[in-house]
């Protein structure tokens, strides 16, 4: 009997040594995954099979090795794979969804898995929901075996894998908490400056230092009418650029991080609205201070080379959205005199972008809006017909009423000079306390006092104006037209911080 028990413990420890070697090689050498077939001869027992195997060892040790299974890297899985074990980190667990139709009802959930070779989605239905949904935890490592492999449905998943897993009756999932079970992640990070060259709607991995974040706001989906909580965050990296990212729902509500935190996102969706932005979808992986080399490097940079004032913003380019154009038209704080006193101002084809802190001296109230087309995204001026209807020539349509849009001229001043600028609909509304051009037009025609009061009450207010000055020609005479691209009410706290930083530069 003594002999048998020696054999037993030897076999078990051999098994776990093999296991360690396998994982060790997997995580240290990238070439290991280039030739996944090289792992075929390294057999590793599934833990839940150990007991059964031990019984076999007593009878015939060769049977045990025949019955054991290989730990496969995710990237080696195809619809032809079977009988494999995955050692994976669970990066995301979806909520349980139920359905009900003429053919019956049921429920399902999905989970995303990752190892350092790749990522894969797994879906479980009905009984497997009950069995596995509560076991799988984000950030924990699991041994997953006996899954079916199917072709990925790209409509529901943004993971970079053409295969997906289905949990079925044979599937087993066990958490492993040995020393080798640190979360394993595989990222393919894109520098923030390079996001400019990424196609809109692509999914990318991004890592950055949290520069700042904004409050949670609620937005309503135009298509479903449902409302979502969202929060915008600004990430910076060594490329010297920042990008705006949007996080949603619970992630947005629970977000409670300091500036300087390292954030890694896998599967962020790229969008383009006045410059490139990223959005963190429900199946993106969102990690705070991940323990990966890229995060350590970024932390070093933040501690030594980070200069907030020199960062350029990728997400606010007003269409000048290439890295070179971005640096050319980069916004810097200046004064009205420095811009308007320059004889060459606005001669560049795209004009000159600048930012000033200035006060509204007065509005021109004689003309402040124009009647525009009601079609979506048209905004063209409409002309009143002889029958009292408003006609858009571009859309070839007539409307009972026009939609008024602002084209508001105002004079702004800072400590160096003053100048006339034009505000269009979005920024004019900010400057007039949210009053729309339609409302102001009907006040002008109905309540002269209220009309004057709106202008009067909004003079003397101070804003950070982002402007574009552009030289225009009219009958051989050149004139500088300055347009407000964006007007933000002064945030005295952040202004004071900026001043202190500026003082620190001298
Ligand atoms: Zn139109």
Automatic annotation (TrEMBL):
Residue stretches making up the Replication protein A OB domain: 192-289
Region (Disordered): 1-20
Membrane-spanning intervals of the chain: none
Keyword set, alphabetical order: DNA replication, DNA-binding, Metal-binding, Nucleus, Zinc, Zinc-finger
Record's subcellular location: Nucleus
Boundaries of every Replication factor A C-terminal domain copy: 353-499
One cellular-component annotation, GO: DNA replication factor A complex
GO MF annotation list: single-stranded DNA binding; zinc ion binding
Major subcellular site: nucleus
Classification via Pfam families: Rep_fac-A_C, REPA_OB_2
Gene Ontology terms: biological process: DNA recombination; DNA repair; DNA replication; telomere maintenance via telomerase
Subunit structure comment from the entry: Component of the heterotrimeric canonical replication protein A complex (RPA).
Function: As part of the replication protein A (RPA/RP-A), a single-stranded DNA-binding heterotrimeric complex, may play an essential role in DNA replication, recombination and repair. Binds and stabilizes single-stranded DNA intermediates, preventing complementary DNA reannealing and recruiting different proteins involved in DNA metabolism.
Record family assignment: Belongs to the replication factor A protein 1 family.
NCBIfam families: rpa1
Protein name in UniProt: Replication protein A subunit
Organism: Nadsonia fulvescens var. elongata DSM 6958
């Amino acid at each position: 009997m003594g002999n048998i028990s020696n054999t037993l413990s030897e076999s078990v420890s051999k098994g776990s040594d093999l296991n360690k070697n396998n994982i060790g090689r997997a995580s240290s050498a990238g070439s290991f995954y280039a030739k996944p077939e090289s792992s075929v001869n390294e057999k590793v027992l599934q833990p839940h099979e150990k007991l059964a195997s031990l019984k076999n060892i007593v009878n015939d040790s060769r049977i045990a090795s025949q019955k054991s299974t290989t730990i496969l890297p995710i990237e080696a899985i195809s619809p032809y794979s079977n009988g494999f074990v995955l050692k994976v980190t669970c990066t995301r667990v979806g909520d349980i969804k139920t359905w009900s139709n003429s053919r019956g009802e049921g429920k399902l959930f999905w989970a995303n898995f990752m190892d350092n070779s790749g990522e894969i989605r797994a879906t479980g239905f009905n009984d497997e929901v009950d069995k596995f949904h509560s076991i799988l935890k984000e950030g924990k490592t699991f041994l997953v075996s006996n899954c079916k492999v199917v072709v990925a449905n790209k409509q529901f998943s943004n993971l970079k894998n053409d295969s997906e897993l289905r949990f079925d009756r044979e599937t087993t999932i066990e958490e492993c908490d040995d020393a080798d079970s640190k979360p394993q992640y595989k990222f393919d990070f894109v520098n923030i400056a390079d996001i400019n060259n990424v196609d809109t709607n692509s999914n990318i991995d991004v890592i950055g230092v949290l520069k700042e974040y904004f409050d949670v706001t609620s937005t309503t989906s135009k298509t479903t009418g449902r409302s979502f909580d969202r929060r915008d965050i600004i990430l910076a990296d060594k490329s010297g650029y920042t990008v705006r990212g949007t996080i949603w729902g619970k992630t947005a509500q629970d977000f409670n991080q300091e500036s300087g935190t390292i954030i890694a996102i896998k599967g962020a969706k790229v969008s383009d609205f006045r410059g490139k932005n990223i959005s963190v979808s429900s199946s993106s992986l969102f990690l705070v201070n991940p323990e990966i080399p890229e995060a350590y490097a970024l932390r070093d940079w933040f501690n030594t080379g980070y200069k907030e004032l020199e960062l350029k913003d990728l997400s606010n380019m007003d269409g000048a959205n290439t890295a070179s154009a971005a640096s050319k038209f980069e916004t810097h704080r200046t004064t009205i005199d420095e811009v308007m006193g320059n004889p060459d101002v606005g001669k560049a084809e795209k004009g000159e972008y600048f930012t000033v802190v200035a006060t509204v001296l007065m509005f021109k109230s004689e003309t402040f809006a124009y009647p525009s087309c009601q079609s979506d995204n048209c905004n063209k001026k409409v002309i009143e017909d002889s029958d009292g209807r408003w006609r858009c020539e571009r859309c070839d349509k007539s409307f009972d009423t026009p939609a008024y849009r602002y084209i508001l001229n105002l004079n702004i001043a800072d400590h160096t000079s003053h100048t006339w600028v034009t505000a269009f609909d979005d920024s004019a509304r900010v400057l007039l306390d949210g009053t729309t051009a339609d409302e102001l037009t009907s006040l002008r025609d109905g309540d002269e006092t209220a009309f004057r009061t709106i202008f009067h009450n909004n003079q003397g207010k101070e804003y950070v104006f982002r402007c574009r000055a552009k030289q225009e020609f009219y009958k051989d005479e050149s004139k500088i037209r300055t347009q407000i691209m964006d007007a933000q009410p002064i945030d005295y706290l952040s202004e004071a911080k900026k001043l202190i930083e500026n003082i620190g530069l001298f």
